[in-house]
Amino acid sequence: MIKKYSFALGVYSLVFFLVAFVIMKLTNDGFGVVISSLIIANSSAVFLVSIVMSYRYGIDFIHTIMMAVLYVVSVYVVFNNSALDYLYFYIVIDFIGLGVGRLLRKVIK
Fold first, then answer.
1. Tens digit of pLDDT for each residue in 63-109?
2. Contact at 8 Å (CB) between 39 and 99?
3. DSSP string of 23-73?
4. DSSP secondary-structure letter at 82?
5. 71 closest CA partner among 61, 60, 84
6. Which of 17-26, 28-37, 64-73 has the lowest mean pLDDT?
7. DSSP 78
8. What is the pTM of this model?
């Protein structure tokens, strides 16, 4: 079971913690640039990982719960409480990715 989620766990940990930390430390152009960069990076990662997980294993909501928990932890470690509002946005993107992956699984297999 751990092997099944290791890809998602690795990508989410990398994007939510490492990429977020690097973007926040290297960007001096303003808070808007930081937030928009993080929204694009996190959204892309959530969407692509959801497609891959749904294509490989079918629709599985444990992956969604894992993404939500890792994001909440990253909010308190890297960001501040105001970033918690984006969780709903990422859950919607996750469900869309699950649907696209399920559709690809039906069409390709």
1. 888 889 988 888 888 777 777 888 899 999 999 999 999 998 888 86
2. no
3. HHHH--S-HHHHHHHHHHHHHHHHHHHHHHHHHHH---HHHHHHHHHHHHH
4. G
5. 84
6. 28-37
7. T
8. 0.85
